[in-house]
Amino acid sequence: MGFAGACQPLRGTGDDAFLPHILFKEPVPEERETEKGLRPRDNVVACAGKGNPMTLPVKILSVLAGLSLAGSARARIWTNDRGATVVAVLVAVRDAEVDLKLQDGRVVAVPKNIFSGADQEYILEWVKSGGTLPDTDVGAENPPVQGDSGRRYVPLEPNWDAPWPERVVVPGFLLVKTVQETEELSVYETDHFIMESPGKLPEAERMILARRFETILSALAAVPLNLAVARRPSRKYLVRVCFQEEDFNRAPGLRNGHLKFSPTSFTALLLRDKKGKLLKPGLDPRFAVTHWAAQSMDWDHWLVDGFSAYMAFLPMEKEAPVFRKIPERLAAMVPRAVRTGREALPALADMLSRDSAHSAAEHGVSSRGGTLQYWADLLWMVYWSHLEGSGKAERLRSYLRVRDAEGGGKARAVLLDGKTPEDVQGEMVAAWKKMGLRLRFSQPASAAADRESAGK
């Protein structure tokens, strides 16, 4: 049995809730409903979360054709016995069926016996874990391997212990496939991206787009911070092209130069002159792709911003990011007011408690006119990556490893190494002093509030 005919939308949603460009339904004769084998009163074997699983019988969908960049940390691609796929989160397992939470938030019940061998094994492991099985693949296809027990679920091994790269190798051969090319809509496909354009893209332009997006994804995969969404992409990511400012401004997402990014897509603005020639500056997706990848891994906001600024700051040699002599390069570019301590950087305690309110435009451009927050993010990221300890990002890697396993509270203690934020600031100031910088930090917001209260 395929996904079509195995389930139906929850009562009250209506068939029109299935967007035609995302889900394709197959008509299912009413007389087949009794053959689904769904038993709404089956015993629950395992359930994720504290609530009860939804047990309404459902009838589905065949293939999820839409593209999505975001997802739960436990979302994965499920494959049935006919090869049809759907991206969903496992939320409950009963005797004969499982509940999957789709990307639009709805929960559907699907018979267990229609899934592939790899999915069957994953369900068994999920039940054994009590519904807490970590999925480091973040939606990856989890290819099965042959073993003593046949097929089994194989997670992606973390790369915490890999060496920090010196230079990312640009893909030597980059295939850009033309899926469709008309004056109204053109679609091009690379290994990991699908590019949609409202018209034809000259070969030079589509090769530039493809190479820049593929290169930053390769760079993120090479950094030993276990960015699983870059190391084993679960699907091809969507890049929409705009030729007009008006269309670009209407696109969703945060803006960074001539690029916007949201949880579901990237939007690139390609401006041309009257003769149709592409205008400079060129498109640089390093900040946007890094920001999306870090957010997809559910990193803290300060690290999302700092790591994105770091990847966008890296020098390029023959279109490849280079990780050599980063502290020296940054020390030479820091504005004089920051370098001499005339302007104080935000306190570390405030940075670590940052919420999601920020401007991508203020963080993604390494210019001497950048904001204090941008320079603070970049100085801290370079410190933890290249100056702290032996210069191999040990503390940063330990922080992320503990955060993945045990949560943010214990991870914060690892990052601070048992010290106060002020003590860690002192260590960072001492490290940068060797590079000719005399950094100074503001008082934390809490301390400033206490002084204000005392004054009153």
From TrEMBL:
Domain of life where this protein originates: Bacteria
Descriptive protein name: SLA1 homology domain-containing protein
Annotated organism of origin: Akkermansia muciniphila (strain ATCC BAA-835 / DSM 22959 / JCM 33894 / BCRC 81048 / CCUG 64013 / CIP 107961 / Muc)
